[in-house]
Automatic annotation (TrEMBL):
Belongs to the glycosyltransferase 104 family. Protein-arginine rhamnosyltransferase that catalyzes the transfer of a single rhamnose to elongation factor P (EF-P) on 'Lys-32', a modification required for EF-P-dependent rescue of polyproline stalled ribosomes. This is Protein-arginine rhamnosyltransferase. One of its GO terms (molecular function) is protein-arginine rhamnosyltransferase activity. Keywords: Glycosyltransferase, Transferase. It catalyses: dTDP-beta-L-rhamnose + L-arginyl-[protein] = N(omega)-(alpha-L-rhamnosyl)-L-arginyl-[protein] + dTDP + H(+).
Amino acid sequence: MHRFRSPARPRWEIFCQVVDNFGDIGVCWRLATDLARRGGGAVRLWVDEWEALRRICPAAAAVDERAGGSVQGVELRRWTSAFVPLVPGEIVVEAFACELPAAQLEAMAALRQAPLWINLEYLSAEAWVAGCHGMASPHPRLPLVKHFFFPGFDAGTGGLLREADLLARRDAWRARPEGRAAWLAARGIASGPDALRVSLFAYEQPELPALFDAWAGSGREMLVLVPESRVLGDVQRALGRERLQAGDRVVRGALTACVLPFTDQAGYDELLWACELNFVRGEDSFVRAQWAARPFVWQIYPQADAAHHDKLEAFLARYLQGLPAAEADALARFWRAWNGCAPDRATPAEAWPALAAALPGLDVHARRWCDVQAELPDLATALDTFCSHIAHAAR
Ligand code: TRH
């Protein structure tokens, strides 16, 4: 069996297959740029869908898909069915069990020193994660060993992606007196000092019209910022519009809804920082909302067997710890309603007044949660440490 030995600055090679949305590429692009920025070695990212990459990383449009090219220190390569391996990296990451091409595995096995092969798993707050984090699985035929690396919310897991300067950048952005006002003004958006600013990034949401009705009739000005995403059809339905696009603004009672263009990831962070309540989805925006340290509503990626309900409850069980019962109930009730989960059969519109009342307490809690999570090693650091430990153990 070949043994992995990590050089001081390994070459990282990440494989990403885009499933359904941006999520997988959102996480992989963030990991790749974070590793590159930390100077821990060269980073190559293989992506099967260039269009999805281009949306979160517009600079990818200038890269020749066949020849590859570098953006933010990451070598971008298109992963096609005619895949021909390059010299494999010393650390090869397959994201979310995307299954490396056979030619890549053969190239890895042919090396004198086998690369360290990592399967980066989906984020889950479930208790079993810590037990599986770091497990090894030898390839049945080739002299290769795959290691499972799980992100998570405690020290027994691989942590969460968090760039080294993220929280300082967030605080500096918020501290600038003109920060948010200028950000909104640059997008042609005005709101009163007491408005509740909400970002809405979501999958389809059939319950949205009733919630918009509640917001339109609310006693507080509601500014809802909707980046172009799958929920836009429901926003159109809720506002009785045929077609909405970036730049459109619709006022109904206390509610003003503004459609924003889909930006790069840095721009999306600023949207989260600018709002008092963020609706997020999937995995990466869910984590970014936690670093924004404001109350948020998570729409979990739906799975056919409703396995996502358990994942939602597992996160709620962790997140709600330490909150007074009324605030914890308000948040849990709204999240379950937003995700269509039994047994709490309230609709989001019915669950909204209690959530609105709980926001001040939830705001304090969101900051506390963010601070606690920020004490743990971030995912890129944890991954680097994990690889070094395996290399050390192999000596
Ligand atoms: O795209 P998603 O729905 O991702 C999901 C999850 O990863 C899920 O686990 C997976 O199984 C499924 O895809 C197939 O949501 P997510 O993870 O939040 O990714 C969206 C990315 O888009 C994230 O990196 C933030 C980014 N983004 C921008 O860069 N600009 C924007 O304007 C917006 C709204 C988002």
